[in-house]
C-alpha cells in the first residue's frame, strides 16, 4: 500500500501522484455505498499492481474542501473576475466570497481585462477595489499584458496549493497558460448574445504553475447557499462579523433589529452599502429556499 495525492479526476478514474509517478485508480465500492466521493487534492492510500490498475483504499482526513468545484486540501482560492466580456458583476463576486468564507478559506481577488473598459468604468472598478481591500482582501487589478499577469500571479502561487475559480470566460485558463505555456489549456471565446464564456474546462485537475499546484476548474455563473444557514451568513461577511458583538442583541441578523451596529456602520459609510444590500439579498434567499428533509 502506498500514499499519494489525487491530481485529476475524470470519468470515474482518479489519477494519484506518488513518488514522482502517476497511477490511474478507481475508488473502492465501499465509497459508493457510504456516499463518499474522492476529491482532487485528497491525500489517499492506494495500491496499484500496475500503473493503470490502481484502487484507492482510504481517504485521509481533509484540511478543507469545496463542493463546486470539487477539490480538497487547498491553501487559497484565486477568485478571478473580469472588468469586461463578461462584465464585472459585484453580486456574483460576493456570492463567491461568501462561499469561500463559509469554508474558512483565504480568497485572493484578481480583476482582469481592466484595459478593455473606459475611464468611468475604471474609476468604478477602483472604488470596488478600495471596498474589498478595506475589508481585508488582497485585490489585484490587471490588464491583458502577459508579463504583468505572470509576475503578479506567480507571487501568490509559489509553494501553495490554489484553486482558480470564477465565472466562465474571465480568463482562468489563460492566466495559467501565461505561467506555464506547456499546459496548453483550452480557452474559449465570449458568447456575444449571452455575455459569458463557453465552459471549456471539463474536469478538475491540479497542474504545476508559478511554483505551486493550481486547480484549473470548470467555470460556473451561479451559486446558491444550500449549506449556509441565516445565522451563519453574517460570519461570511468579515466587516459584519467584526461588528457582531457591538449589536444590542446577540442573535442580531442586522435586518430589522433595533440598535444594530452593522446598520449604523452602513449609515456612517464604514460598511459599503453594496455589500450590505448583497447581504440582505442573500439572507432573503436563505429564508426563501425550500426546506430540506
From TrEMBL:
Its cofactor is Zn(2+). Its EC number is 3.6.1.-. Pfam families: RsgA_GTPase, RsgA_N. Residues 72-221 form the EngC GTPase domain. The keyword Nucleotide-binding applies. Keywords: Cytoplasm, GTP-binding, Hydrolase, Metal-binding, Nucleotide-binding, Ribosome biogenesis, RNA-binding, rRNA-binding, Zinc. Binds 1 zinc ion per subunit. It comes from the Bacteria. GTP binds at residues 112-115, 166-174. Belongs to the TRAFAC class YlqF/YawG GTPase family. RsgA subfamily. PANTHER family: SMALL RIBOSOMAL SUBUNIT BIOGENESIS GTPASE RSGA (PTHR32120), SMALL RIBOSOMAL SUBUNIT BIOGENESIS GTPASE RSGA 1, MITOCHONDRIAL-RELATED (PTHR32120:SF11). Monomer. Associates with 30S ribosomal subunit, binds 16S rRNA. This is Small ribosomal subunit biogenesis GTPase RsgA.
Amino acid at each position: 500500500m502506498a500514499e499519494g495525492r489525487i491530481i485529476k479526476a475524470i470519468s470515474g478514474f482518479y489519477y494519484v501522484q506518488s513518488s514522482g509517478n502517476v497511477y490511474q485508480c478507481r475508488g473502492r465500492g465501499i465509497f459508493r455505498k457510504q456516499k463518499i466521493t474522492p476529491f482532487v487534492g485528497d491525500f489517499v492510500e492506494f495500491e496499484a499492481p500496475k500503473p493503470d490498475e490502481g484502487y484507492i483504499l482510504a481517504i485521509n482526513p481533509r484540511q478543507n474542501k469545496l463542493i463546486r468545484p470539487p477539490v480538497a486540501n487547498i491553501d487559497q482560492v484565486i477568485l478571478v473576475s473580469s472588468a469586461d466580456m463578461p462584465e464585472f458583476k459585484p453580486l456574483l463576486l460576493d456570492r463567491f466570497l461568501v462561499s469561500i468564507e463559509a469554508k474558512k478559506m483565504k480568497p485572493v481577488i484578481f480583476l482582469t481585462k481592466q484595459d478593455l473598459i473606459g475611464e468611468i468604468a475604471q474609476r468604478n472598478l477602483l472604488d470596488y477595489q478600495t471596498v474589498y481591500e478595506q475589508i481585508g482582501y488582497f485585490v489585484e487589478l490587471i490588464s491583458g499584458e502577459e508579463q504583468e499577469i505572470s509576475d503578479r500571479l506567480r507571487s501568490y502561487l509559489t509553494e501553495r496549493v490554489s484553486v482558480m475559480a470564477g465565472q466562465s470566460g474571465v480568463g482562468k485558463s489563460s492566466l495559467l497558460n501565461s505561467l506555464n505555456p506547456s499546459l496548453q489549456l483550452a480557452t474559449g471565446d465570449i458568447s456575444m448574445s449571452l455575455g459569458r464564456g463557453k465552459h471549456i474546462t471539463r474536469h478538475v485537475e491540479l497542474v504545476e504553475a508559478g511554483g505551486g499546484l493550481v486547480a484549473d476548474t470548470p467555470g460556473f455563473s451561479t451559486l446558491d447557499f444550500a449549506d449556509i444557514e441565516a445565522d451563519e451568513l453574517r460570519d461570511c461577511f468579515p466587516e459584519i462579523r467584526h461588528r457582531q458583538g457591538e449589536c444590542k442583541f446577540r442573535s442580531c441578523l442586522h435586518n430589522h433589529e433595533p440598535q444594530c451596529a452593522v446598520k449604523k456602520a452602513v449609515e456612517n459609510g464604514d460598511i459599503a452599502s453594496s455589500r450590505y444590500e448583497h447581504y440582505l439579498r442573500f439572507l432573503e434567499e436563505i429564508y426563501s429556499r425550500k426546506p430540506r428533509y
